[in-house]
Amino acid sequence: MLICPVIRISECEDHGERAGSLMKTKGKRSGPGTIGIVGSGATAAYLLKHLAAGGERLKITVFESSDEPGFGMPYRPSDNADFMLCNAFSREIPVIRTSLIDWLKTQPSHELNEWELSRHDLSARAFYPRTLIGEFLHDQFAALVDGMNRDGHSVSVLTNHRVEDLIPNGSHVKVRAVTPDGPVMREFDNVVLATGHSWPTHPTIDDAELVSPWPYTNMTKIPPGKIGVLGASLSAIDVVVTLGHTHGDFDERGATVSWKPNPDAKDLKVTMVSHMGIMPEGDFYYPFPYKPLRYLTKEAVKEEIARGAENLLERVFELLVRELDESNPEYLDQLGDRSRTIAGFAEGYFRHRQEKGGLDAVKEDFEVVRQSMQDRTTIPHRYVLLRGHEEFDAALRHLNEHDWEIFTDHLMPVFADCYAAVPHLSLARIIALYDAGVLDIVPTGSNSSFSKEGSDGVRVQTEDEVLAFDAMIDARGQDSAPLGELPFPSLTEQIVEPNEPVERPFAIEMAIRGTSRVYCLALPQVIERHPFSQGLANMNELAEIVATDLLV
């Protein structure tokens, strides 16, 4: 099994900062009381870990809609195939009870063989299938619950309990769940929504109906024909690789991966459709532990924040420009005359891949990043962007609306492209499908439209052509959503500002005042203003913020 290192995570601000709290309750707070946690994935596991470290004896109930707690999306085996790869170095997956590597070392050899792993393959700089990470989370969650109960806490995990409403009354929060035996109602002093990712079962775009990629069996049911994939980043790459495994075989024994179709898949044609028609670049070598940046530092960003919101985005961007010039004096000049402006930098950053052509650019990039790994040489501008987005993130909650829109339109695509660097094995499989003549990538441009074509098909009008597909898979990844779109009607009726983003410490301000609290760590709501917070390291840090506030 070829294992390639990749990590794309971000860090939260200093935990001591409490600015932006939505919690404005009356009455004295007297500890966490009883706690309900909705969801049992990674966020819930890290929340339990930090609550356990607080020293108080706690009474906690965890609600899980499935019959197996601890996996979470997108790590659940039923939702993913074992060739969908996690985008985090194992050393960057925060410890719950043990580290991932230590856990892997305790697994029997026959179980490692099922993952096509040997003990020689185990490395803290390697990266592994999502479903393997899911098994780790599942095991660690169970060990954490058992350990907390042995230590005197009371932790109950209610499986097959799908929470359909939260009813706050000021002093308590009632949780209403549906079970195979009928509805149940439980009451808590505080509730944490740790529901993680959320994708629609029947996604749409314009007038077209799309296929959800989760669970992955949705995709394997599509007959081999003209299949569209909406998106071109990591989720879309997983989708394309899934289609390749479903309708053919990858030969990964040599230095070059190849692909051959199944006998009944001669008509397979997969087209990735995205705004720019490009994929992120591949993972590259850089030193770890990280070397510090010189200009775009946590301290420098804090100083700019202290100066106020006026022109804050421009001032932090100037730190980024200085850092790029320090790392590679020629880089920005290569991007064009406007590269030292926010819009010009974003345009120049993507220009070469757009002009080269999506998958031809992928092949060119693959050679560069493989050489980077072989020679152990860092690509300077990419290292600055990878490290810099973590410091840049601290300024985002302080931007005015005008600057937030500029950041979203121009800089967010750059940072997302950089931290979404593609594992080499995934790149090799994408190139194999391209070389086999079954994969293409097409830009839609700014004025595209989507419409229904026949019973299940989709028609796409790009700026240059009309494309018709037998089916199109939605691979756009997790989208943000306001608090008002939480699927709990009694709760949303009480939210004071349902269209405002949730901010630290993630307690929801409700019309009914009192001592009870509802915290929101549901990912769609969190990424509204924390756009880099989708990795396990991020969930660990956000969970610590909530646990700290609960234990006050």
UniProtKB/TrEMBL annotation:
InterPro entries: FAD/NAD-bd_sf, HpyO/CreE_NAD-binding, L-asp_N-monooxygenase_NS-form
Domain FAD-dependent urate hydroxylase HpyO/Asp monooxygenase CreE-like FAD/NAD(P)-binding: 37-197
Domain of life: Bacteria
Pfam families hit by this protein: NAD_binding_9 (PF13454)
Protein name (database record): FAD-dependent urate hydroxylase HpyO/Asp monooxygenase CreE-like FAD/NAD(P)-binding domain-containing protein
